[in-house]
Write a structure and sequence with these properties.
heterodimer; A: seven-stranded mixed sheet; four-stranded antiparallel sheet; globular; B: mainly beta
Chain lengths: 113, 114
């Protein structure tokens, strides 16, 4: 069974530029998550989708971050404009449904210079 | 609200020995799950073991086992016959059955020495 796929794996951008990360969850998984993990910390949930609807985006900095899952399958997370403090690993994860085990992708490393 | 606490920022163990990582949690929910995830330097979060709160029996997965003390809200991970590949950051996490926000602890960096 294929795992959660993410791209790109690594990205370096200058502050005020934009970046987009893509995620394809495990087939059949209705719930998709984007987490931000700053070095030395545990992951923090940015946004959670149930199919194509947003369930929880309370910790998403909406002035610069946006995410969509239009067809209820793959998802894109965008940052515009990027700040230095956005340097982190962005982890996508999925689960069969809410309350089930969550599986993570390999992450997308972002460095903002 | 859920909280997860890992009080050991770093631990080390000799290869082939046994090590125990500690975790405590707090929740007002009765139905929840607890997890240990392993994060090597590649930063991928890998599921190690899962425990359903309603089960009294401690979960076991090969060399990994947990000591789940529900009344004490304690969930420790025991790694037997430690291997060099076990070197990683280990995160304890909780998930309530009715929701989906996985709450992580601060992590414990485990180093296995040859």
């Amino acid at each position: 069974e294929a795992g959660v796929a993410q791209s790109p794996r690594y990205k370096i951008i200058e502050k005020r530029q934009s970046v987009a990360f893509w995620c394809n969850p495990i087939s059949g998984h209705a719930t998709l998550y984007w987490y931000q993990q700053i070095l030395g910390q545990g992951p923090k949930l940015l946004i959670q989708f149930q199919n194509n609807g947003v369930v929880d985006d309370s910790q998403l900095p909406k002035d610069r971050f946006s995410a969509e899952r239009l067809k209820g399958v793959d998802s894109t997370l965008k940052i515009q404009p990027a700040k230095l403090e956005d340097s982190a690993v962005y982890l996508c994860a999925s689960s069969i449904n809410r309350g089930n085990t969550i599986y993570f992708g390999e992450g997308s490393w972002l460095t903002v210079v | 609200a859920q909280t997860v606490t890992q009080s050991q920022p770093e631990m080390s163990v000799q290869e082939a020995e046994t090590v125990t990582l500690s975790c405590t949690y707090d929740t007002s929910e009765s139905n929840y799950y607890l997890f240990w995830y392993k994060q090597p330097p590649s930063r991928q979060m890998i599921l190690v073991i899962r425990q359903e709160a309603y089960k009294q029996q401690n979960a076991t997965e090969n060399r990994f086992s947990v000591n789940f003390q529900k009344a004490a809200k304690s969930f420790s991970l025991k790694i037997s016959d430690s291997q060099l590949g076990d070197t990683a950051m280990y995160f304890c996490a909780s998930l309530i059955s009715s929701g989906s926000r996985l709450t992580f602890g601060e992590g414990t960096q485990l180093t296995v020495n040859p």
